[in-house]
Amino acid sequence: MEQRIQKILALMGIASRRKAEEFIIEGRVTVNGKPAVLGMKADPETDHIKVDGKLLTKAEPKVYLMFNKPAGVVTSLSD
Fold it and tell me: How far is CA 17 from CA 12, 31, 65, 74, in A?
């Protein structure tokens, strides 16, 4: 699925969306060998996205863990 380049960079942990926009403006990001421009969309599954010449790899899926707090346990910084 196509997404904006800055969102892809943010999801992969490269930079925040605003910082990613700066990278694009500075010409540090390429998509399929061509310089990226603001507003450009790409598919992280099929397109080759590079930042400073380094190819981005697929991000690992996030894992969320949930725990139940036993009764009587305080989890605040102060009582």
Answer: 11, 17, 26, 37
How many angstroms separate the CA atoms of 44 and 2, rounded? 7
Q: Which two tokens stand for residue 13?
A: 């942990």
pLDDT above 90 for 70: no
More confident residue, 23 or 79: 23
* Amino acid in the structure at residue 45: E
CA separation for the pair 67, 79 (Å, rounded): 21
Angle at 51 between CA 44 and CA 23, to 5 degrees: 105
pLDDT band at 72 (very low <50, low <70, confident <90, very high): confident
